[in-house]
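Exercise: predict the fold of this chain.
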Amino acid sequence: MDILLQALPLLLLLVLLGSGRVAPVPACLAALAASLPAVSAALPPGLDLTRFLATESVRALFLGLLPVATLSGGLLFSLAAAPRATEPVPASPRRAYLMILAGSFVESVTGFGVGAVFTVGALRAMGIGGAPGGGMAVLSLWLAPWGGLGPGLALGAALAHRPPHEVSFVTALPHAVWLLATPPVLWALLAKAGLPVPRAERLAQLGMQAAVAALVLLLGWLMPAETVGFLSAGLVLLPALWHFAPPRNAQARDRALAAIGPWALLTVVLLLARSWAGAPGWRPYTDLPAFQLTHVAVVLWAVSLGFLAKRQDGHLRFREAMLRMRRPAAAMLLYVLLGRWLAGSGAATGLAHGIAAGLGPLAPFAIPPLGFIGGLLTGSGVGAASSMMSVQADLGLAAGLPPWLAPGIHNFSSGAGAAYSFAMTAMVCGLLADGTRPPAIWRGVWPLILVALLVGWAAVAILHALA
């Protein structure tokens, strides 16, 4: 009975969102109500339910405001740094792929779905929206395990008592394979958007994606964890832009600089901020990440306001960004609240242990779906690590796996879950603002969700056998 209570909120959320008739915010409110019996049953004796809900809700507000501030800063920057020219951008399969790759670079540097914000804007400029545009925006999060310079990976490694470099390399092994499965899904989305992909273009995109996958493997082995994502995307993106769309005259160079320059500046400022060790910050909870002066959200807002100050229409763009963030912000805060109630009460841990106990000798194969569920519920690598990594590491050791295996597989699968999470797809739908709902996005990308689980299971079996 306990496992049914613990699974009920997630199942209800899936049913409501999957019906396509319930918007993300009311669906999450229903899931929150359905979680109360499981939360109450999981609380230790003596802990009052009302007191727990109040305490965890405040913690959720703190945790949720970090990605909301980052997302709003990313949207604000994308509007503040947009070129002044209003010429329509021709749509093409190659340009769409390069913008998705650029979004993955942005996500690797900023995290919290800002890469999807960038991609939505770039695709809208080409006239691509709806479910195909939303699916492509979600695809731009394909380097999510290293998103935002890897805070989720670092937190998970600390909770599992493993070196971050080790967790990064183990993550890269299945992730590189999964990346090779993404082009066919992209081609199907492009076809639905009225942009069928010719055979020659498919080969070119497959080659670029294979290069990204190879770099993920190589850099996961050789480089610090926080550099793997943006180097893997950037080392393919920049040569591809130069080869396929070189500026042929001074006017073209000026347009390229106007489009790329602000993002390059933002990347440099973020890397400089990340290099400031021991920056002051606010940390109301010792077990949660601090809100530092160098946080991505602070940098995004500071740089964005600087660009806005130079624009005559700066106040209008600021107002537009805040209006467009209302629905995504509300959805993200509610999903973080649901994740905190389930994780803080122990209901999520109880569900994990119940699934593992029911599987017996197949318990190691629970690690990929549990990691995916962690990302699906919390919408971020940080949230998935804080709620599930300790359980995953203990499960791996109890099942006889080498100590490095479970943390890496969890980081891979939770990254996939976060990319396709309730919070992230709701945020993308809010930005599209064209009536698209999460089920339409999931229908376009569901093969990648299935492949993520299959690759995770194969990695558990193969790496365990080779260890």
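Check your answer against the key: The CA atoms of residues 109 and 267 lie 7 Å apart.
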